[in-house]
User: Fold these one by one.
Assistant:
Number 1:
Amino acid sequence: MLRTLALVILASLMTPVMADQRTETQQQLDQAAKDVGELKKLLKQLQEEKSGVQADLKKTETEMGNLEQQVKDLQQELKNSEGEIQRLDGEKKKLQDARAEQQRLIGIQARAAYQSGQQEYVKLLLNQQHPEKFARTLTYYDYLSQARLEQLTAFNETLRQLANVEQEITAQQDQLNEQKAALEGRREQLATARKERQQALAKLNQDFSDRDKKLKARQQDQAELGKVLKTIEETLARQEREAREAEEARKRALAEQQRQLRELPAGSPARPANGPMVSSAGGNFGGPFAKARGQLPWPVDGRVVARFGSARGGDSRAKWDGVLIGAPEGSSVRAVHGGRVVFADWLRGAGLLVILDHGNGFLSLYGHNQRLLKNAGDIVKAGESIATVGNSGGQDTPALYFAIRQQGRPTDPAQWCRAQG
């Protein structure tokens, strides 16, 4: 019978604790599912951005290919132009030689004309000794004059052609140099754009990989939390079943005892005296937690580096459900109120974690510890050391994660602990 009563009392003590754990785990599971959904949306958005950058990169690289072909065509044009310039240079040299020859002939004619002056026709008119030669001489002089005029005209044309060739050569060289410079500049611009887009694509790939890893981690957390929740529910169901069986056994034992008592003769020494039944359940450790609002001490000496409800890790989607207190490594972590240790182990994301049950649905959590000083089931007093400050669970610097839960819901520890400077 005593064993049966002990089972009933143990079940009544453990059921609220398991119920609180189930509520807390369900909330964590719901939050993990929400995070997974948001991460999937973000991954989809990153994939769309990645596809856009890849399309831009494809366009840029296609333009680069076209530009390479343009540069190759330009190089061929430059090669052809160099041949044309060489041909023009040859023509220029011929014109220069023709000009020099024409200058020489014109110089001879000019000297001859200068030496004869304007007296040739006068001498012919005055000299009539050979009249039959007069007409032929005049015709000869006309031919010479016409030849001189044509030679001068040809010389001027040679000079004009030479100037045109030189101008054409210069213009073609300038034009080709400008085209080459423009295409080289465009090639540099596209190369820069290609590099920038490749960097953007690499960053997107890295972000996608990081988000994908984070998504897988959250999915794993969700699966682990689901297992914990299932275990808690099975435990609660088993405890309820054992409690019902123990209660039925107790009732049967009492009925049997009462039957036996009724069969005893009056005045028998075996009949017990009538009196109230007592139980050890409902004991308070340091007074009711609900009345300690604003009066609790802080668990460690340090500075609050992350407040309740602030963004966690720069991610606006994740909020702190407690506070983070920076403190020297190895500093003593003390219980803010008396209670029972219901969890003392390593937990993903919180590191070495201690959870105290203060009764009536109140829990306090102490995470990222260096060392745990208590075990599950231990009863601690207010101010008693339960752990030491560390950086377990992925923290960069030593700090204590401190949270308070009321009926499974997070509440701001600053509302429960004494105001600090």
Number 2:
Amino acid sequence: MKIATQNQAFFPATILEKFKFIKAMGFDGYEIDGKLLVDNLAEVKAAIKETGLPVTTACGGYDGWPGDFIEERRLNGLQQIEGILEALSEVGGKGIIVPAAWGMFTFRLPPMVSPRSLEGDRKAVSDSLRWLDEVAARTGTTVYLEPLNRYQDHMINTLADARRYIEENDLKHVQIIGDFYHMNIEEDSLTEALHNNRDLLGHVHIADNHRYQPGSGCLDFATLFDQLRADGYQGYVVYECRVRADNLAEAYQASLNFLREC
């Protein structure tokens, strides 16, 4: 299994040293913040060349959501995502992780009444995805549509929700990212959701059930990895988690060692 990581606070601050540290730990790639990539493109290219560690994907680094309630912010976010995809194409990155929105609204907390209709939600997200699909086609990249749990987003919560957007809009360069943490909240069965969407599953985020490092909670990673292998999954699985331990670096290394045995 190809395992990559996002940044952690205990990683070195400089770009080259960060790449060296991630490679020395034994990771196969680095999922970079989109703004960091765009603002430091030449330095990232140099770090890739010196270390041989690939930038797999980008996550974050833009200010508006594809499903944003505020139209100006939605359009601004799309322009920023376009710039990130263009930068990714220059460093060999596969694509960018994009949820409909994060932390904008939830039906699970007051006021529990959305300022926009469900039809309005679908139109905003669909319009954004169709536009991004064209950008991804032009840049040779992929948009990974991420379902989030019900407390962080009200529009796309399951892999089936993401699949519906892709199929209804006939998107050719949009795939699904499965995040084990969100899936553990929303899916009836993580393995069934992975299997049922294996043809569109292009990326995976991992954390344990409580959002800390894999192996520190109760998710059955061996079974989940076995399902990915059985379905012929060829993409990366990427750490997106907090770390809970007295020694953060040691705990992170131990977690990666644990996953290598799964």
Number 3:
Amino acid sequence: MRLAFSTLGVPGLPVEDVLRLATTHGYHGVELRAHPEEPVHPGIGPGERADVVASFKAAGVSVVGVAGYARLADDCADDVVLDEVRGLVELARDLGAPFVRVFPGGGESPDADAVAARRLGVAAEFAADAGVRVLMETHDSHRTGADAARVLGAVGHLHAGALWDLMHTWLGGEDVADTFAALGPYLGYVQVKDIAGADDTTPLALGDGVLPLAECVQLLGRRGWDGWLCWEYEKRWYDDAAPLAGLLGGGRELLARLVSDSA
């Protein structure tokens, strides 16, 4: 398994500084939060995209994915959602990133599964042309692996997959073995993190909270899964959380030890 972190933990940080953190602390990749308040998002032009590619290549770091905010089952026109996903796919293609992250959305709509599957199926077609996989994160209305699998099973396309957010499946009451059983056929990569508790999702250093991180990594290793583990530290939403930069070294050491122990 390869190790990465998300720029959600270092909001607004220039690309060169993000890469300095990655190389200093031994991370193999970075997940880029593709929001307009970040340096890299679908609104940047070809020259800026080429500069990002050159910077990552020079640093020897991979762009794991483009983390977008499109919500597949939101109550709006198909074109609105699909245009947003298309912009993310084109950005990922230009950056050489294999994955795009989207959310299920949908709230409590009884049609959320069908709407998400229809739109994800269309997105998978143009993602295939771009050599990118669109991953629906376990989130929102589809917090557990079982929830996400209902949509992904209906889509049945190689370029539609799942992003497993460990926090959300745990908050949904799902055991890691059950999550992997549901998402295994579709799994793109895994977001790991740690939090204080179900009633306090303040991000903590890996290993300092309540999430079943070790159990998750050990299960992935036993099952022979060899993808990306990406630390999503949600500093953007928690002003009082400790800065990620000071935690990255210890987090990498913990993840590396868990991966080694799971082999």
